[in-house]
């Protein structure tokens, strides 16, 4: 009997695996269904099945991809998965290797949440520099929430208990459904006209779909642009919305928002009492210090013996007067000596002698000037030759035809050179 036409189970399985692995449609598969037979291995891998009303497929998600999950998968949970289909050779079963898993319904909302969060963060709407300070002692608090429900009851009761002197104004709004986001925006803008010190925006707990209006972009921008400090109070402590990130302050619950919005009157009274005690102690300390200072002055030597202080000043004044007198006397004596010296000087006693000596000195100077007077030289027969108003002292500067002026002692001769000869 010829067995060549028969395949082994291994050969068939490998062939089928090859077909699965090389089919482009099976490399990029998106499925939705319900988790069953879920098992989390100690290695971090997840083993489970995905089923619908009539069919089921085995699935495995390795730890590297499982770490990316933002929720904990459980049996019965509806999910959206992405991965590739292949054959597991050991059993011959086909299965899907999952690289991404989202909660069905919630998954799309989560993606939208992350995308809007990233967008607004890049625009700077979450930056601390834009956060407004919540006033410590508000006189008027606004609340944007549903007019009925636990949220508004908790807020009103908390404010009344903690700070009853504060006025609360409710701006009733839809807080879930497709019309909630525009209504919340409208009530925030309305609140800006009521001279509020702080505005609480929020609602009680619920599913992510119920809280979704507070993840809408128009609500986030309305909170950011609001000129009133805004406290967000959406859901429970574990719930985070876009409104929480853009608000000036986030409260874990509506009750927490009321506690952050107003102080506790009992705590204020206690604090004021402590301040009163500290103030009285401070005043008493100042009074005691001033009394001690006054006693010190009363018992001082100067106060008890004021004339001694006068005697010291009088003695100091006498010392100063004596110094001034001595200085004036020394100055006067110097001037008297100088005046006596001048009176006895040779010049004052013999003024004519000085005059005669000075006259002789002047005559000597005049005689010396006469000796070098050029006019005296001209009278002895000398002359001065000018060319173009310049004195000539060499024939090198003269040429035939030059006009000359010859100055004599009693006049000037104008002439022209006919010939120049060197001597």
Order of helices and strands: HHEEEHEEHEHEHEHHEHEHHHHHHHEEEE
Mean pLDDT: 87
Residues in β-strands, percent: 15-25%
- Total beta-strand segments: 14
Biggest sheet: strand arrangement: 1-2-3-5-4
- Provide the gyration radius in Å: 58 Å
Number of helices: 16
For the record, give the distance between the C-alpha atoms at the N and C termini, rounded to a whole number: 161 Å
Helical/strand content category? alpha/beta
Instruction: Label the overall shape.
Output: elongated
Low-confidence runs: none
Q: Can you give the helix content as a percent range?
A: 40-55%
Main pleated-sheet profile: 5 strands, mixed, barrel
Short description:
With 423 residues, the chain is of the alpha/beta class. It has helices at residues 9-21, 24-27, 63-66, 106-123, 150-162, 180-191, 208-211, 217-225, 242-246, 254-261, 265-298, 301-304, 306-343, 346-349, 351-371, 374-379; strands spanning 29-40, 46-51, 56-61, 78-88, 93-103, 140-145, 167-172, 198-203, 230-234, 249-250, 384-387, 390-391, 403-408, 411-416. The protein contains 16 helices and 14 strands.
């Amino acid at each position: 009997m010829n067995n060549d036409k028969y395949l082994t189970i291994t050969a068939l399985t490998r062939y089928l695996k090859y077909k699965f692995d090389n089919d482009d449609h099976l490399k990029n598969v998106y499925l939705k269904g319900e988790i069953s037979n879920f098992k989390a291995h100690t290695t971090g891998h997840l083993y489970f099945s995905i089923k619908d009303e009539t069919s089921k497929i085995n699935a495995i998600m390795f730890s590297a991809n499982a770490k990316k999950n933002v929720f904990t998968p459980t049996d019965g949970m509806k999910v959206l998965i992405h991965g590739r289909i292949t054959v597991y050779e050991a059993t011959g079963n086909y299965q899907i290797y999952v690289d991404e898993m989202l909660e069905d319904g919630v998954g799309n909302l989560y993606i939208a949440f992350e995308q809007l969060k990233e967008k607004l963060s890049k625009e700077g709407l979450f930056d601390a520099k834009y956060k407004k300070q919540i006033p410590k002692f508000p006189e008027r608090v606004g609340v944007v929430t549903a007019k009925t429900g636990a949220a508004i009851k908790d807020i009103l009761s908390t404010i009344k208990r903690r700070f009853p002197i504060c006025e609360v104004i409710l701006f009733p709004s839809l807080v879930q459904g497709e019309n909630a986001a525009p209504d919340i925006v409208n009530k925030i803008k309305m609140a800006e006209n009521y001279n509020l010190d702080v505005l609480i925006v929020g609602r009680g707990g619920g599913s992510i779909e119920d809280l979704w209006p507070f993840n809408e972009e128009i609500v986030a921008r309305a909170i950011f642009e609001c000129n009133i400090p805004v406290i967000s109070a959406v859901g429970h402590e574990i719930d985070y919305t876009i409104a929480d990130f853009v608000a000036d302050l986030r409260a874990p619950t509506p009750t927490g928002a009321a506690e952050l919005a107003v102080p506790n009157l009992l705590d204020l009274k206690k604090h004021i009492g402590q301040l009163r005690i500290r103030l009285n102690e401070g005043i008493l300390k100042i009074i005691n210090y001033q009394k001690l200072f006054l006693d010190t002055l009363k018992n001082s030597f100067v106060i008890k013996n004021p004339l001694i202080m006068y005697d010291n000043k009088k003695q100091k004044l006498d010392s100063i007067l004596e110094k001034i007198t001595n200085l004036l006397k020394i100055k006067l004596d110097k001037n008297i000596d100088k005046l006596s010296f001048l009176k006895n000087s040779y010049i004052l006693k013999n003024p004519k002698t000085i005059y005669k000596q000075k006259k002789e000195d002047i005559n000597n100077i005049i005689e010396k000037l006469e000796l070098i007077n050029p006019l005296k030289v001209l009278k002895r027969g000398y002359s001065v030759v000018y060319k173009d108003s310049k004195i000539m002292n060499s024939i090198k500067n003269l040429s035939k035809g030059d006009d000359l002026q010859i100055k004599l002692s009693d006049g000037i001769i104008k002439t022209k050179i006919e010939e120049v000869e060197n001597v």
